[in-house]
């Protein structure tokens, strides 16, 4: 009797071992491809197209500027092992310089319409022209570029997971429809405005300004880390008084000390305008999307420009 019980228990143990071995094999077999993305705008596109079919890894931690971020060695290894790496390019991410990307990587700046920006020269260029030091890298704020990026990212996702092609295409269609409606909102709200100048922390809103025919004056230029000169601060304060500007904008990832000082001395309001290169941890908890933040920005821009 005891021998039968022992044999039975041995059989149960063996059966359980075989079950867990098979289960672990299935989990490993069905592991999702990992796609690493470098900015919030790219993350928003990828998550809306892939949904739960792919593991999307944000290279940039919440609350950190893409202009100054440096990934850890551990993160670098994860990037190298991923099925796909999608990054902004055009000089936005300093860490990409000299980085040996895996074979399957995607520099979106090679596909979108970029703008050369110098003090006296604004010109649209395409991916076959290479003057990277002159590009303004904040091209995702131009909604037409987001449509281009959505098409490019969808094609890349189909290549790494072809069985989900129809699923990805369906989601792409819905996302592009959202972008087209957002573009109509911007055109409608910024069609007729009394003022034509925004003062912002850095020149992230150059594409928006060019598209909707207003000007931006900035504290620090293309990079928010650049320190403004006393001359620049004086010029901005004079502009505020001359143009009767009533709002000055800063960003969540840059110091607001100088902006608030200017606002205090000129008796104007201070507001946050989001460049969407990244989001804060609080915005992530609220599950805010590209659309949500772009609409929030639109309301603030429209108010500052006194649009009808």
Description:
With 308 residues, the protein is α/β, with parallel strands linked by helices. The protein has two domains: 153 residues, Nitrogenase molybdenum iron protein domain (Rossmann fold), CATH 3.40.50; 116 residues, Nitrogenase molybdenum iron protein domain (Rossmann fold, 3-Layer(aba) Sandwich). Helices cover 46% and strands 13% of the residues. The protein contains ten helices and ten strands. The strands form four sheets. The protein has a four-stranded parallel beta sheet with strand order 2-1-3-4, sandwiched between helices. Helix 6 links the parallel strand 7 and strand 8. It is globular and about 90 Å long. About 5% of the residues have low confidence.
Name the average pLDDT.
87
Return residue spans where pLDDT drops below 50 for at least 5 consecutive residues.
23-29, 125-132
CATH class of the largest domain: Alpha Beta
Tally of helical segments: 10
Write the layout of secondary structure elements.
Layout (H helix, E strand, L loop, with lengths): L1 H28 L4 E4 L2 H11 L4 E4 L14 H9 L2 E4 L17 E3 L6 E4 L4 E4 L17 H18 L4 H25 L7 E4 L5 H6 L3 E4 L11 H14 L3 E4 L6 H10 L2 E4 L8 H5 L4 H15 L4
Helix pairs in contact: 2-4, 2-5, 4-5, 5-10, 7-8
